[in-house]
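Sat 14:20. Reprocessing the chain from the morning session after the first attempt stalled halfway. Input below, unchanged.
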Amino acid sequence: MSNRASPPPCDGCGTTERLSLIIHNVRHRGLIRHFCTHCLLSNHHGLFCPICFHVFIDTDDSPLPPSLRLMCLRCPSISHRSCSPSLSSSSDASSPAAFLCPTCADPKFNYFNLSAADRISRALDEKSFKVLAAASRIAAVSMTKGAAAARYDAERRAAEAAAAKKRAKEAIEHLATVQATEEEETENSCCVVDLNLNARLHVTE
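Finished this time. Tokens:
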């Protein structure tokens, strides 16, 4: 029996790993979030084509030139024109087409809608595999960038702490020097007073 702790439910819809097969860890708006596949893709429109699920992150075709893309009228989603032949053929390539991505066209649409049998067998068809692969890649890139940002922040904080420690040490050394100088000046002043007093006493005698 596996002792692996169950991941937290999806921060978007509350679904669990048992129902969605996987809960992705992703850095979203500066925070580490937990999303099911559908919610992850729904929160990252513009990073993938919602029809063929090609991911645009770190690829030669990112961003797509206007002549090759369709922009959703309601969200940042970007699709290949070639993925929507009906719209591509009915509109001029130089002008935007009246395109709605699947989630905007149908509020009940789910990118990763598995049947009960699929959840039990954990078997995926080609489309579901592409959807899961796209979500996993977006999550991986996000976490990699998040780790790099965290490492940079840690290094910056370490450098700031070292600089502050150096400044504190220099301040203590400067204070010690000032105190030593003041003590030396005080001793010299006392010596001068003593000499003057002795001189006056000698004259009086």
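The chain has six helices and four strands.
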